[in-house]
Amino acid sequence: MAVSKTLKDDIRKKRIQKEENIKNFKQELLVVDAEKEPYDDAVRTLDLDILSSIDKVNQAIYDTQSAYQNRINSGCYSDLFWRVTGSNGSGLNLIVDQLNPVGYGYSVIYVEPVTGVATTLESTTKVGLTTQNLYGLKYYNQPYLKDIGDTTLGTFIGQIGVGSTILNIISQTPEELIVGFETGQVITSSKAGVFPSPTNTIVGFGTTVVTGFSTAINEIIGISTDIFYTTSIILKDSTIGFSSLPEADGSYVNYTVVIQPEDFEAQKPRFRYKVKFTKNPYSPETIGILDASTAGTGYKVELDNSGYPSAVQDWKPELKGVEKQGEKVKEPNVGADKIYFKTGFVYRPVVGGSPAPKGTTLTGIATATLPLYYESTPSCSSSINNSITSATNNQTEKENALNGPCVANVEDAANGIRDERNEYSLRIWGMRQSIGNQNDELDKLEALDTYINQKSSVIDGETSSNCV
Length: 468
Known about the structure:
This protein is 33% helix and 24% strand. The chain is of the alpha+beta class. Among the domains are: 61-134 and 339-384, no CATH class; 136-338, no CATH class. A six-stranded antiparallel beta barrel has the order 7-8-11-10-9-12. The chain has a five-stranded antiparallel beta sheet with strand order 4-3-1-2-21, with no helix packed on it. The chain has a four-stranded antiparallel beta sheet with strand order 14-6-13-15. Helix 1 (5-74) packs antiparallel against helix 4 (382-402) and helix 1 (5-74) packs antiparallel against helix 5. It is elongated.
């Protein structure tokens, strides 16, 4: 097989040109990134301004929650109630339980103080509790906006048991989200103690069925189903902890996949900043709630008071309206979360005329006598009542200010500057794609050069082929 010196020289020149192109794209990229920085700073400053206002409102909400809790602590209201645990031949078995704002994890049959009627708490409006949605600044982020040094590949809510290597992705489109994931990549958990070390490693992928979490799945991704088919990630190391749907405090655990630090390409300077030429700059989209450390993130922000969980979620906006698992794909539910005020009861459990503490049990109680095991709580002092009124009025005042034109104007400004910054980000993304394209072509030229040198030592027609 004869290969001319001219051809080999041509390949060498093309390699040099590709390397020079990559160098030029990097230089231009860094120039544009520097031009973008003033916009980054301005967006971050405006976000922090809004976050400051939001923090004041949320603090007022927490102050109201504390005022209600102080009323419980004073004894003039109670957060205790009789719960039915079963029955025997004589009547019902009871235990004194305490209001739990995030649920109980089991069926709770509540004995109503006046009528004695036993009802299941989960089937009613939160008895003795008032739901309060918190405020937050929700952001929408897309790949082209990520920092040039960001190695994050995706974030999702996950569920896994103790001693397991099967991590279930909780998303309406899990099979699409893992397209950019590969074995060998690193994964982290927002909950400490799930993995035996700070990170785990992906060794494979599978499919699984998640059952028994219909309420949680409806809350976080907005679909109602008792059987949820999803994609699972197979981990290298078994867990030493777990993440449930939801956690005991009502939150959800995020898992983040990042590029392996020892990635071969990361060790070669020519690969720096590259993205695949065919990678979608707009998907997957990440939705979350800003804090001081993430201020400035996203192509747009909006004030949120939905009460949805604050866990970060990725989704594929281009699939909106496409049917999956019997329901159309829609934006996942991401919000600033919610808390509960223990408004409590004006009755408290008693046994033998004395208040019954949590954990007190009774057996064989006749249904007709259930009201006898409650008594009215003492009247509240004016200072207790006034503190609730004062906290509530302060909260209302702060909320009205937050929802007024001042914050709305700052939000509009933050999004307006984002629009300008996004143009710079798109230019940077184009350069990163060009770097990726040049690297792909350079890889091909290197492979061709290697092949030629291995298969032939031909110079100007003098053949020494090692082909069979």
